[in-house]
Design brief:
- By secondary structure, the protein is of the alpha+beta class.
- 26% of the residues lie in helices and 30% in strands.
- The strands form four sheets. A six-stranded antiparallel beta sheet has the order 10-15-14-13-11-12, with helices on one face. It has a four-stranded antiparallel beta sheet with strand order 5-6-4-9. It has a three-stranded antiparallel beta sheet with strand order 1-3-2, covered by helices on one side.
- Strand 14 and strand 15 form a beta hairpin.
- The longest helix has 15 residues.
């Protein structure tokens, strides 16, 4: 099985252990996982155990996963997720996704213990295991004094984008990184080889990887963009593509 998941062997071994625990009657709860890792869980476990997911928001991207025997009855509380709205005075400051994430990680909270961050209203999901500490310690973000307001799971994640148009000679990953993020081809290739680029949440280290319409390309410390391949081409036969950059 491991040969089918190159680069993910350690994670697959962990999933197989989760499956073994479920087959022995236990319930396993993961930290927040991105869509790629959750897809691996489904591929590995298949129908051999029940799999449930919850992220604390409607349309959440990152979710905790419960793996258990199929006779278990799961309720929302089993996911141990707390959602907090961030209350602050917008007259004096504007807090963004990166500000909230930075403040939480500055407290020493592991990234996998933080779920999605909602923009409107500003809110975040976090593992219940860390929530008491966060409520006690997080009193300020940037220059703003804040208060954390417990929320239910009803908030919806809505992404905002800034659209930009580019001309690309091909849909190779290195060429798209170069043109969309304004780098030389050599620097784009170096970034890919270093594991700084993900496509659909999976690290891709092949510079000649061919991207597809609606792929989400993440470039560490540069941002994230959804690729839109149009039907238009230049006179020279190059692709005209659009990048929807996440704000």
């Amino acid at each position: 099985m491991l040969e089918h998941f190159k680069g993910e062997e350690a994670f697959v071994r962990k999933i197989l252990d989760y499956q073994n625990q479920a087959e022995n009657g236990k319930m396993v709860l993961t930290k927040f996982l991105d869509p790629h890792k959750r897809e691996i869980i489904h591929d590995v476990i298949g129908q051999r155990a029940a799999i449930y997911e919850e992220g604390g928001f409607v349309g959440a991207e990152n979710k905790r996963v419960i793996i258990c025997p199929d006779y278990y009855e799961i309720v929302p509380e089993d996911f141990k997720i707390h959602v907090y709205e961030v209350g602050y005075s917008e007259k004096f400051d504007h807090l963004a996704h990166k500000d909230v994430l930075g403040a939480l990680m500055h407290l020493g909270i592991e990234r996998a213990c933080i779920g999605d961050i909602c923009k409107q209203p500003l809110a975040f999901a976090i593992t219940a295991e860390n929530s008491d500490y966060v409520v006690m310690a997080l009193k300020k973000i940037k220059r703003s004094s804040i208060r954390l307001i417990p929320h239910d799971f009803s908030l919806t994640i809505v992404n905002d984008f800034k659209k930009k148009e580019f001309v690309a000679t091909s849909l190779r990953l290195d060429k798209l990184i170069s043109v969309m993020f304004g780098l030389s081809r050599a620097k784009a290739m170096d970034a890919i080889h270093m594991g700084s680029v993900k496509v659909n949440h999976k690290v891709i280290e092949q510079t000649d990887y061919l991207c597809n319409n609606n792929d989400i390309i993440s470039f560490r410390r540069h941002g994230r963009v959804k690729l839109q391949v149009t039907a238009r081409t230049t006179k020279a036969g190059n692709y005209i593509v659009e990048g929807l950059f996440y704000l």
